[in-house]
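Data availability (excerpt). The following record was deposited with the supplementary files.
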Amino acid sequence: MAQPRRTAWRFLAPKSGTVDGIEFRVNAVTQAPTNGLKVSFQDLSNGYPDGVADQYRVVTISTAGWYQSGIMSDDGTDGGVKRTLTQGQMLAAVFEFNNFVSGDSLAIAGSSQDWKYLDYSAQFIENLTGSWTQPGNIVCVFALKYSDGSYGRIVPGVVPFNTTVAYNYSSTSSPDEVGVRFRLPISVKIKGVAFGFSSLNNDEDDWDYVIYEMDDSVVASVSAPGEERVGITHQVYNPRFFGSDVTLQANTWYRLTAKATGTNAINFSAFVLDALALADASPVGSDFYITKRTDLGSWTDVTTECPRFRLYVTEADIGAGGGLMMHPGMSGGFSG
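Predicted structure:
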């Protein structure tokens, strides 16, 4: 952003409470703002920020990275009055230079998404020439921190990640098995699983999807032969269904992995969080994170890395009298 540009995240308050401030990522700094970056909460007028910084803070920016605003208040200090939100209230977090100096320039991070998965209430908007516009299918990358230390989960699809990590591995590499350690708050039946892979363009990109209990007992597995996906050169979810539905018990830890069985590398990425607490602001929460190992050895868990994966749920126990209840809308699964 450069003068007179302002950018903003327009979002719904995920829960009621008093807010300390926000955390966000700066992607690139051409010239660090001489007088700092002003971050404010603003009400909306006709769908856009009304120009009144109800609560704000001036943040010192130096390089690309994850930043914490500190307490945002009516006078911009720790001792000022903070923002109190009501669940469902729509507002904006606005970024602008605090007294622009020629040459000040930086980029606030966002995440591009397919329009059909885009949630209106978490979108990037910008003001280039005096009026606000919505430039495209970009959702916010930020976290809303409440005064009790918790983080609000904005909407599905908003992940407060600092960066990403790529896992490229084969049956001969270390690790050779990567996946997600997870647990669910309810019992479910699933028919299949999927990871979001970066590219698959070789018939030797083979793996098995495996679900383990914590003692490494295999709950279910299914093969994913590479020749069935030759020609896929972009990031895509690659589902496989088991021979019959698999039951996952509530509040029980499992591991779901893509175990490489071919000699060519398979590729998928994970979001990297600046701190574990930020996982509560992600779509899946803190009970879903990377797990990996080599040659069936000991597992290494990385609690600040969140993989992209899906569980294709066919039935779910919602606690309405026992048993599993069919919900057709759940066939889309959990998406991380």
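Summary of structural features: The longest strand covers residues 17-31.
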